[in-house]
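We give its fold:
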Amino acid sequence: MSKIFGTDGIRCLVNEEPLTAETCLKISKSVAFILKKKNKLISRVVICKDTRLSGYLYEPLVTAGFISMGMDVILVGPLPTPAVPLMIKTLRAGIGVMITASHNTYEYNGLKFFDQDGNKLDRRIEEQVESIVSNKNLYKKITNKSFISGKAKRLEDASGRYSEYLKSTLSTNLIKKKLKIILDCGNGATYNIAPNLFWELGHEVKTINANPNGKNINKNCGAVDTKQLSNIILKEKANIGFAFDGDGDRIIVIDENGKEIDGDKIIALFSKNLIKPKNKINQIDVVITVMSNMALEEYLSNKLKLKVKRTEVGDINVINCMKKHKSLLGGEQSGHIILSSNSNTGDGILAALKITQIMISNKLKASKVFNLYKDYHQEKLNLKYLNNNKNLKRTIINLNKNKLFNNNKIRSLIRFSGTEPLVRILVEGKDPKLVKQNISKIENILRPHLDK
């Protein structure tokens, strides 16, 4: 078990490796050891979680790991992932942990670690953790030989701190305006804070899927399934709807006509209203991923004259690229939106607040404010595999290189999911018929290698 971390922290089925109870404890102790070795002054950890049932399993395990290494733990959950960097700063902590499996259903859970600056762990630190956890001799050496352990306490006003911070990012004239907003909290970490915040700002708010029971997180709702939200917006004649995923770092928008607005269109809106070209040699204005629609890149580059860079899938790749190039905006089509002047990670509630501000200031309906470019046609397909074998890997590499599926009429991308045993296929082009034909061809080529 050498590989523990994926594209966004650790994630797997509950009680399976690398998140059995024993390994979870080892991971938290290893993180404490490595980060404390880098900075001996680190003594405090913030631990947050979403609403899934297994949070009751992993919260005490992670807490015990840090306490055993002589560190104090502050428990703040359940709160959205973007609250963790803020809590690290305001509570003068050295480490932050979010216990979540993001958009996955309750059968999954995971861990996201943050350093003292509120940044997700560097890949080199992740590799060090993996090497310690996988090696009995190395793990034996990190035991705290002191009789002094840490202690844990629960912070009661954490949601209030986060809410007030979010309010501080808005201009004051927003409070004087009202919108009719439907919120789909996905029975996740935004279930309490988002409805209260939008109501406090004076909006007319109706909330759905804000009754978490530990098992209904992301179940046919939230950012992963917006059908219910779309129907309610039409029924209630609302101005706009926001759907969050389980840990609140992603957002999907539904306009007043019930139409879904993905992360690409949100990036375009923010680029137009919040970003100005800097024209510096190494400056990248906006960072997107290989999944983003080509029409978005053309709009940003040709219409707005912004410098754009694509990264591999995963918000950590976007964030690292943004840091390198000092970019103010980045994100993914799936709804991770990073505004670096306000947050170190994607923040669904923050993005929703900024969208309402732009709508109000421009006096435009949601359908009009997002009508900035016409998408190329995209088809997506997820194929489950049994084993990540050499033939499957080789076939995917060859398909990605194949000019039949990557030319001036068609763009394709085939990749392994970083969180589930899935091969994800994307085919894009202006001709819908040609796109459908090509995704079928790719599927037929991959099928024989999935069950081996």
The first helix runs from residue 21 to 38.
